[in-house]
Amino acid sequence: MQKRSFSILVILLLWGNLAWTQQYINYTTKDGLPSNHIYRITQDSKGFMWFITDKGMSKFDGKIFKNFTTKEGLPTNDIWDIRTTPDGKVWFFSKASQLGYIKNDSVFSFKSIDKNDILYPIGILQYKNEVGFSNGQNAYFLEDSKWIKQKQTKDKDHYGELIIHPFIKEIIINDKYGTLELINHEHKLEKTFKKLGAINENLYKTQINDSLYIWINDTEFTLLNLNSLQIQSHTFNGMK
What pTM value is reported for the model? Predict the structure, then answer.
């Protein structure tokens, strides 16, 4: 019993020492960031860290920040969202006339096929190397260096979100019956769920990776697995 108590004490002491010796570094514009107002941080397929801010994007190799602004080709410095793909592209999203990606430190931006279109992404779509976005009414996908618009389902009782997935084409919310419907690429109903959690009232919704779609509000989030066709709602304090 004494040996066991001693072992537990040693483990707790070691854990405590590790916790106290862990170091954190606070990076600011003094270290090379374009702004201290950072919207999001992510890591690309090569291990570089990316920061998106109200004054541009920044790539960090652990020592040096390399910044990208309108001078380097960004359509705007105020970048709201970011996605990385396995092919080495870092996609940027904001309200702008052009959107695109950075690859090998070069900026590639693309306009909508409709010349006067202002691109305004609300939800981002991603499946492997393919990326698109939705503005609530239409979905946009990059084809032949142009953003192609596809209309989403919308009427009095239904509104849809086109997604990028090999089996599911669109998620439709049916307010009349309080359901969520999954439509396949043959335009047939694949599965129906009862609306729950953050689907009923959300501040943000997006396809976060190859298989997951998420709805978020102030108190909870709801996850839909597009592969297993299962749905779960969680509060920020636990699972419902």
Answer: 0.84
